[in-house]
């Protein structure tokens, strides 16, 4: 049975991925800070008793490692790790040079991706030639060309893309696949404030289906942009800097 460890599972994309993997019969490790939402999610999933909840902050590396160790103890091999926890603090209208903001975003989006994968790599190595083992980074189209007003977010996601690509090449011989998923605009609590993007928001379940397929196929890099992306591109409805992915 597939085992999947997902950070940022209490909301949006993480919760939608959890629902899809639970339907496929997977055993899940669900990580986020809000334990009430994690418990709520767990009880709504298929086979709730198979899933473990870890209420922690992913920037607390000791807590994250302890959760990973517990999940490995419970299940032996872990097949998929999705480093999905992320924050966006940009207003999309104001430039920020606030270093505290930069540090918080880089710690949550980039360093915690590294910290989420690290405890699983040695666990996966002996199994990766006989079964599917995937490390999945969640980047953003903002990481491809940048997003004015979300400088810290864009920089963190660009770094996630290049970190995952470096790791992919470095781990290729072991059989562990590293997959970078690059979402566009997906309908989650994170995008609720971006009103200009509303007509283009992709339903989160549709996104999760495409992401689960890409992860299963072992693609190294998959952009899943937004609703009507082709039309928006053709008509140049969205600002130019959003098209080049
Ligand atoms: P949400 O805000 O809905 O969910 C974010 C998740 O991350 C929550 O479960 C939150 O849980 C968790 N999280 C945030 N900070 C921490 C932390 N320090 N420790 C543990 N968990 C944390 O956003 P989305 O679902 O939209 O985003 C998920 C990922 O997808 C993010 O990495 C985001 O950057 C990326 N993405 C999203 C896009 C979109 O259009 N929605 C586009 C491109 C990328 P809690 O608050 O309980 O800790």
UniProtKB/TrEMBL annotation:
UniProt entry tagged with the keyword Oxidoreductase: yes
Superkingdom in the source lineage: Bacteria
GO cellular component: membrane
InterPro entries: NAD(P)-bd_dom_sf (IPR036291), Sc_DH/Rdtase_CS (IPR020904), SDR_fam (IPR002347)
Keyword field: Oxidoreductase
Any GO MF annotation of the entry: oxidoreductase activity
Keyword S-adenosyl-L-methionine found: no
PANTHER family recorded: DEHYDROGENASE/REDUCTASE SDR FAMILY MEMBER 7B, DEHYDROGENASE_REDUCTASE SDR FAMILY MEMBER 7B
Protein family membership: Belongs to the short-chain dehydrogenases/reductases (SDR) family.
Record protein name field: SDR family oxidoreductase
């Amino acid at each position: 049975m597939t085992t999947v460890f997902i950070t940022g599972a209490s909301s949006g994309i993480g919760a939608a991925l959890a629902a899809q993997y639970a339907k496929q019969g997977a055993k899940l490790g669900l990580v986020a800070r809000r334990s009430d939402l994690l418990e709520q999610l767990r009880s709504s999933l298929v086979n709730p008793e198979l899933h473990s909840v870890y209420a922690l902050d992913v920037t607390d590396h000791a807590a994250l490692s302890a959760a990973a160790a517990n999940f490995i103890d419970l299940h032996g091999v872990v097949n998929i790790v999705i480093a999905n926890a992320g924050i966006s603090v940009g207003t999309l209208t104001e430039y920020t040079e606030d270093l505290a903001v930069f540090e918080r975003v880089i710690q949550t989006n980039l360093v915690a991706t590294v910290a989420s994968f690290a405890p699983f790599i040695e666990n996966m190595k002996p199994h990766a030639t006989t079964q599917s083992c995937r490390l999945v980074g969640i980047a953003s189209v903002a990481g491809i060309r940048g997003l004015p007003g979300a400088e810290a977010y864009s920089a963190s996601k660009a770094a996630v893309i290049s970190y995952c690509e470096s790791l992919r090449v470095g781990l290729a011989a072991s059989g562990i696949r590293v997959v970078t998923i690059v979402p566009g605009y997906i309908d989650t609590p994170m995008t609720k404030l971006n009103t200009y993007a509303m007509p283009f928001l992709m339903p989160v379940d549709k996104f999760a289906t495409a992401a689960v397929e890409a992860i299963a196929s072992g693609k190294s890099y998959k952009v899943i942009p937004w609703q009507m992306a082709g039309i928006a591109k053709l008509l140049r409805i969205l600002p130019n800097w959003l098209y080049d992915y």
